[in-house]
């Protein structure tokens, strides 16, 4: 391969047509209230983990809904499962259960398949 | 009523293009990379249409690339362009024909600046007189040379030998048209069809029998962007923009890409090679790149000019597949031979274009 002193930057456009939404549908089945999220950010504002780490529940939710699954697993490890996000949510989203559902999803063949796709 | 309103709206998208007596200003990039284009333009205008096109050997670069690259100040570029206007005034011309879209954008920007800030124009008059002893009149009209070919597209169609029809299928060729951003995105009133509906290339394609491909990223920048390209480490931004366009157009299987801007022609052509080398991706059918032409080269081809006289051997992407589709005869052995019989050398072509290599009769293998 030739070297040109630069590489072609990856496109950061969010492509809803080509992104894989299977993980979102998997979570949605187990926690339908995820659909009620209006992205207000109350969950992240009140989050204890967010105060000490880069954890951002709202961001995770967005990534999941957009089908951008690449950074989900690392992000979720910082959650302490205290449940304050669930208490402050004005739409009644069961955020804590969503985290649990996502952790379960990481053990499924679907996740393995998505990981392979990302690595390709 | 609706019709009248539509006419009123479309009036804003029309542009006055002079009919004759042009002061011609060349393009730095096109003279180097697509030299047949300007030669064809002058030959076609003078010999086939009998128009008066004057060029002055004292004309220089407009310094547009330096200006957009932040190394040439605004006052300097305005004085350089004022000198071009002075040469035009001295020669007795009132209409400028501009070969380069960057220069066209620069001329438009300067004329608009002077329109809104007459004190700056006066200052430039004084600076030019001080520096060169020359003074100038502003041109009555400025036209990009693609505007002029667009104006005379039906004259080309009347003399056409090879319409844009695929000889194998009988279907119109599918053409991606790419308009340079500085043609009409900055000052829409200076372009045919404005920024939203530029007709300058689409009009030629339709008049010569082809079909315009309307794809999602049709109006996206080619990626040149001056600053993105001039610094080597930033070129990934440039190539990423071109890649976005190629990704978007690929599924429409275009037969070739038509550009009116020197930078766009260069990058749409050469980045295909770079992307093939860096990412093993080729956008044309059967492992070939998509040929990229200038509008003069296309006009020359449909009129029956020899492809090598038009300078098509200077392109990174081999054009032979397109010539075959059009049914144009060419001699592969003469591709890299000058009129004096000298071999100009074979370009380094990646193995992804191996089919083109067979047609071109050159060596195979990756550079």
Give the oligomer, counting copies of the same chain as homo and different chains as hetero.
Answer: heterodimer
Percentage of residues in DSSP E strands of chain B? 5-15%
Q: Summarize the biggest pleated sheet of chain A.
A: none
Structural class of chain B: alpha/beta
Overall tally of domains of chain B: 2
- Helix count, DSSP H or I runs of 4 or more residues of chain B: 17
What is the third-level CATH name, the topology of chain A? Answer: Fumarate Reductase Iron-sulfur Protein, Chain B, domain 2
Largest interface: A-B, 11 and 18 residues
Structural class of chain A comes to mainly alpha
- Helix content estimate of chain B: 40-55%
Q: What is the name of the CATH class of the largest domain in chain B?
A: Alpha Beta
Straight-line N-to-C gap of chain B: 63 Å
Rg result of chain A: 16 Å
* Count of helix runs of chain A: 8
Principal-axis shape of chain A equals globular
Shape of chain B: globular
Could you walk me through the main structural features you see in this protein, from its secondary elements to its overall organization?
The complex is a heterodimer of chains A (120) and B (367). Chain A is an all-alpha fold and 120 residues long. Chain A is 50% helix and 0% strand. Chain A has helices spanning 22-30, 42-45, 48-52, 57-66, 72-76, 84-88, 95-105, 109-119. In chain A, helix 1 (22-30) packs across helix 7 (95-105). Chain A starts with 21 loop residues before the first helix and ends with a helix. Chain B is of the alpha/beta class and 367 residues long. Helix content of chain B is 46%, strand content 8%. Chain B is built from 17 helices and eight strands. A four-stranded parallel sheet of chain B has the order 2-1-3-4. Chain B is globular. Mean pLDDT of chain B is 91; it is low at 355-367. Chain A binds chain B through residues 1-2, 4-11, 13, and chain B through 232-237, 239-240, 243-244, 247, 274-275, 277-279, 350, 367.
């Amino acid at each position: 391969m030739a070297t040109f002193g630069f590489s072609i930057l990856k496109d950061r456009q969010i492509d809803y047509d080509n992104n894989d939404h299977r993980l979102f549908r998997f979570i949605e089945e187990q926690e339908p209230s995820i659909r009620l999220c209006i992205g207000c950010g109350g969950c992240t504002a009140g989050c204890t983990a967010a105060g000490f780490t880069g954890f951002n529940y709202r961001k995770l939710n967005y990534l999941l809904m957009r089908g951008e699954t690449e950074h989900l697993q690392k992000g979720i490890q910082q959650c302490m499962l205290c449940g304050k996000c669930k208490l402050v949510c004005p739409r009644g989203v069961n955020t804590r259960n969503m985290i649990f559902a996502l952790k379960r999803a990481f053990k499924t063949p679907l996740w393995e398949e998505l990981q392979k796709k990302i690595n390709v | 009523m609706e019709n009248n309103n539509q006419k009123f709206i479309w009036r804003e998208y029309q542009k006055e293009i002079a009919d004759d007596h042009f002061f011609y200003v060349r393009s730095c990039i096109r003279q180097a990379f697509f030299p047949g284009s300007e030669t064809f333009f002058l030959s076609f205008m003078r010999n086939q249409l009998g128009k008066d096109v004057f060029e002055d050997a004292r004309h220089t670069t407009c310094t547009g690339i330096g200006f957009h690259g932040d190394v040439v100040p605004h006052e300097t570029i305005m004085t350089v362009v004022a000198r071009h206007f002075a040469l035009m005034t001295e020669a007795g011309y009132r209409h400028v024909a501009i070969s380069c879209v960057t220069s066209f954008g620069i001329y438009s920007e300067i004329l608009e600046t002077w329109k809104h800030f007459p004190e700056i124009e006066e200052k430039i008059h004084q600076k030019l007189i001080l520096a060169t002893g020359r003074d100038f009149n502003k041109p009555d009209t400025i036209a990009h040379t693609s505007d002029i070919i667009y104006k005379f597209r039906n004259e080309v169609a009347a003399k056409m030998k090879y319409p844009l029809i695929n000889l194998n299928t009988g279907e119109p060729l599918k053409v991606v048209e790419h308009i340079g951003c500085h043609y009409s995105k900055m000052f829409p009133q200076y372009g045919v069809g404005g920024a939203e509906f530029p007709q300058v290339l689409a009009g030629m394609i339709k008049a010569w029998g082809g079909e315009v491909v309307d794809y999602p990223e049709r109006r996206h920048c080619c990626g040149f962007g001056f600053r993105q390209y001039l610094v080597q480490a930033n070129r990934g931004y440039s190539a990423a923009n071109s890649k976005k366009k190629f990704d978007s157009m690929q599924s429409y299987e275009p037969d070739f890409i038509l550009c009116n801007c020197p930078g766009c022609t260069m990058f749409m052509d050469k980045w295909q090679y770079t992307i093939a080398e860096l990412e093993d991706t080729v956008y044309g059918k059967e492992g070939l790149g998509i040929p990229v032409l200038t509008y003069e080269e296309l006009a020359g081809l449909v009129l029956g000019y020899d492809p090598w006289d038009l300078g098509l051997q200077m392109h990174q992407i081999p054009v032979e597949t397109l010539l075959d589709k059009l049914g144009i005869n060419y001699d592969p052995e003469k591709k890299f031979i000058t009129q004096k019989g000298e071999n100009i050398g074979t370009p380094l072509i990646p193995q992804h274009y191996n089919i083109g290599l067979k047609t071109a009769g050159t060596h195979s293998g990756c550079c």
